[in-house]
Design a protein that fits this description.
Blueprint (H helix, E strand, L loop, with lengths): L1 H16 L6 H22 L7 E9 L4 E7 L3 H21 L5 H20 L3 H22 L9 H30 L10 H7 L3 H18 L9 H7 L2 H26 L1 H6 L1 H21 L3 H21 L3 H32 L15 H14 L6 H16 L1 H26 L14 H19 L2 H21 L15
Antiparallel strand pairs: 1-2
Helix pairs in contact: 1-2, 1-4, 2-3, 2-4, 3-4, 3-10, 3-14, 3-18, 4-5, 4-10, 5-6, 5-10, 6-8, 6-9, 8-10, 10-13, 10-14, 10-19, 12-13, 12-17, 13-14, 13-16, 13-17, 14-15, 14-16, 14-18, 14-19, 15-17, 15-18, 16-17
């Protein structure tokens, strides 16, 4: 079943290449729905507290200790489900207005989905690196070939090359660290293996943990991104095609955060404890920086981009609080942000298509002539600003609860980001929905097809807001097991209910 969830989208992309031009997108969409059905079945069948499930462990390169080992736990199962939900939505949105070279467009989207789901499922270190790179490659082509050349910024090709330089640098560091981790853990007679669980059991020499952790961390921080590793973000967000950018922001950034949970915390617990303060400071700076920058932008794409930096700051803060409640909140935040940012980006795409600009000053005036769109966007806005009762509010509450137990000062500063989110989210809504009279003959309301896509995503957002325990109850056991080694090294206890001991 798990292999179908990983590879069915890529098979669908290949099948779509054989379909007539007008049907290409819908063929890919149908295969995406198949992957979604499998992800739902795995989530329903997942037994909380039972460790890795749906495990597939096959020898691949046995002489090198590399295996095809995939499985899911209480953390990854919901990230897989999130990816399986948002990908068909973006695919269907693209299919309503067929893009140029549709066969290539949908094939690349499908390969990206298989790579992302594979990264969430990988339990072998080298396999994780391969899936990590596989998910990135299609987006280089999507951004470069279908991007636009905005005024006053880099063109699509230059922006894509800039992004590639940043991410390729991180990927090379990660590959070096993965190989070194396997060989260092095998010293002393242990078998050479890239299995994450086996390396965790064998341990890594203490003197190597800091640099190995740092190499992985740089790759993940660039990918999320967080301040100050976001140098590629501004130009990429201004030029990239919005449906692809929505998926990139929703899912691929979460693979970077997931890497900390799956790789850094269990494999390098001493380094995690030693660098905990550094990572928490980076998280808080990202929250404040991203919020301030989001409020100051006139480009709707950049509002979404910088708000994502702030949200990923909360995720990073929850992870490095080294408490189960903090990690519970981080995972909920990852899932919720993925679900929220896609409809936000698709609405921005609709507005930009209508006024032929991403400038907020040229949007507006739709609230009365497009009530359905305005209502949908209002729900998305409330989720972004973490209105009490939303899943985003619950996620941030858990993150801050964990952070308060570790460092009150940093937690208080991070709390300012919650208030600042209200400013940039409401400003985005006001400028895009109000403040301007639209032309009398302008097409205002969103089409039925696109409205159905947004409505389905918003229904999922509302359902998660009503029942966030769907995730929190199932994540907790996995969160405690992932955090336990690093928390003990930091002199903390990972349990949600327990108080934190003294820090070294």
């Amino acid at each position: 079943m798990i292999n179908l969830a990983i590879w069915l989208p890529a098979v669908g992309g290949l099948a779509a290449c054989l379909a007539p031009r007008r049907a290409v997108g819908w063929v890919s969409f149908i295969f995406g729905l198949g992957a979604l059905a499998i992800a739902i079945a795995m989530t329903v069948g997942y037994e909380s507290g039972s460790g890795l499930q749906y495990l597939v462990d096959e020898k691949w390169l046995p002489d090198l200790g590399v295996g095809y080992k995939v499985g899911i736990d209480g953390i990854s199962v919901f990230l897989v489900l999130m990816a399986a939900v948002v990908w068909p939505a973006a695919t269907a949105w693209s299919a309503i207005k067929t893009p140029d070279r549709p066969a290539t467009w949908y094939l690349l989207l499908a390969i990206g989905q298989s790579g992302a789901i594979g990264a969430f499922c990988a339990q072998d270190l080298l396999l994780f690196v391969l899936f990590f790179d596989l998910m990135l490659i299609p987006f280089f082509f999507l951004f470069g070939a279908w991007g636009k050349n905005p005024d006053g910024g880099l063109g699509a090709s230059a922006a894509t090359i800039k992004m590639m330089v940043f991410t390729l640098f991180g990927s090379l560091l990660m590959l070096v660290a993965a190989v070194a981790t396997a060989f260092i853990s095998s010293e002393g007679g242990s078998p050479l293996t890239f299995s994450i669980s086996a390396i965790t059991a064998q341990g890594v020499r203490d003197s190597s943990e800091i640099w190995l952790f740092s190499f992985f961390a740089l790759a993940f921080l660039i990918k999320m991104p967080v301040f100050p590793f976001h140098g590629w973000m501004r130009d990429t967000y201004r030029s990239a095609p919005l449906p692809a950018l929505a998926l990139f922001t929703a899912v691929l950034s979460k693979v970077g955060a997931y890497g900390f949970i799956r790789v850094c915390l269990p494999l390098f617990p001493d380094a995690t404890a030693e660098l905990q303060d550094v990572m928490m400071i980076l998280a808080v700076v990202s929250i404040i920086y991203g919020s301030v920058m989001a409020f100051s932008q006139d480009n709707a794409r950049l509002v979404a981009g910088f708000s994502s930096i702030a949200q990923m700051g909360f995720v990073l803060l929850g992870i490095f609080a080294l408490r189960a409640d903090g990690l519970d909140g981080a995972v909920l935040q990852m899932v919720n942000h993925g679900l929220v940012v896609v409809p936000m980006m698709l609405i921005i795409a609709f507005l930009a298509e209508r006024v032929r600009s991403d400038d907020l000053s040229k949007m507006g005036g739709l609230a009365f002539r497009a009530p359905f769109l305005a209502a949908i966007f209002l729900v998305v806005t409330m989720a972004v600003l973490a209105l009490p009762g939303s899943a985003n509010f619950v996620g941030e509450f858990y993150v801050l609860r964990g952070a308060f137990e570790v460092d009150i000062t940093l937690a208080v500063i991070a709390s300012l980001g919650v208030a600042m989110a209200g400013f940039y989210a409401l400003r985005l809504y006001q400028l895009s929905m109000h403040n301007r009279e639209i032309e009398a003959d302008a097409s205002a309301e969103i089409s039925t097809g696109r409205g159905a896509i947004l409505g389905a995503l918003v229904a999922v957002i509302v359902a998660l807001a009503l029942y966030p325990q769907l995730i929190l109850e199932r994540v907790d056991d996995s969160a405690e097991s992932q955090i336990a080694p690093a928390a003990r090294s930091a002199g903390q206890t990972p349990a949600t209910e327990a108080s934190v001991g003294s820090r070294p």
